[in-house]
Description:
31% of the residues lie in helices and 23% in strands. It is of the alpha+beta class.
Amino acid sequence: MDPRTPCLIGAAQRTVREQPGPEPLDLWEETARxxxxxxxxxxxxxxxxxxxxxxxxQYDTPTGRLAERLGATPxxxxxxxxxxxxxxxxxGEAAARIAAGELDSALITGAEALATRRAYRxxxxxxxxxxxxxxxxxxxxxxxxxxxxxxxxxxxxxxxYPIMETARxxxxxxxxxxEMLDRxxxxxxMTRVAAANPHAWRRTPRTPEELIGGNRFVGWPYNRSTVAVxxxxxxxxxxxxxxxxxxxxxxxxxxxxxxxxxxxxEDTWEVAARPALxxxxxxxxxxxxxxxxxxxxLDDMRALDVYSCFAIALRxxxxxxxxxxxxPRGLTVTGGLPYAGGPASDYVLHSTVTMAGLLRAGGGHxxxxxxxxxxxxxxxxxxxxxxxxxxxxxxxxxxxEPVPIADSYEGPAVVAGYTVAYDKDGVPWRGILVADxxxxxxxxxxxxxxxxxxxxxxxxxxxxxxxxxxxxxxNVASW
Length: 479
């Protein structure tokens, strides 16, 4: 084997339930030290320190503060932008540097303390955390929302993902009740996985009926029990090293896990620009490339972790790669973002750590996927107890061509996908839809009348002819 072959030799994760808990910097340090100890690598010898963006706190120099805590002087550092694909991108780039002989070791860590932030907020206090950035930097979008999305206040995933869900539901001819029941059946097994995971945030098994009924909607048709829980205190870290360094450190061969291949692909950045609003072109291409690079197939996978922030993310993967949502292997090794926890950009580190543990214990191969932004960015990674394959890189293997978006429009249109946003008291306050225009373009629009919002959640609205009016910035739909 090439002595530069990269392998994962250390992994750690932590969930903090006591409130208030530690700040992200403390969690970075704790998981970094734990992963390095497992790797038998003194932390001061780390050649690269990379950190996934944290929503909890803006530090002045995140990687610098962590290196200082660890007593390390790495020649390479990186701090990611906001994205659920960021952990895999950092891992993939670190592996490539190791394979090229540029590095011998790399730490990738991430943490959120949003539950602690919430506890301080409810107590009327500010989080007393260290090394705040001054001035505070702008939010770390890789790319800001489209002006029309900003005008229509459509930038929260809890509103964009349901729009794609309703589009898929209508395209398949499913009823509202069928979609909800199928969602409960798909996600109930995930709650049982989370119940057995000591690091999971929610550890109570639920039936499909319990998941779908009895709790408020957030962005219709999604309710609180079937969407990612982001206010968690969780951290994870992995240490990658060259095979030569793993040999020198004395890491047993059965404790090494290999990245056999990975791939990245992009759908459109704007929801309305999707050629097929309820389907993904990029998912299938990312999966195809990752499996080809690994020299393996879906059938070869012992375990799977499909990114699960919302049901549509699971469903688009299952549709694209021909995976049965009730596959006996399950869709997650952690319990998924709604139950194990969805720590902002960091979840894929947790799924990778958990997958590594399974492969170390029982061998075989595993698939870990990631999703970024509004189902825009997709990573597929094949991990294995056996070396082989071709790594791949961060360049997209596919980029979708967008449908044009009309910022403002007056006239007839047809609903392509929609949601109704609910407030914290469970009261609907706005409908939001994507409409097909006669020109072939699409437009966003609000629904403001209470009786129309009630109508929208009572029946299938996709395909409904509507009339749009505009003030030049915000379109409003009526029918």
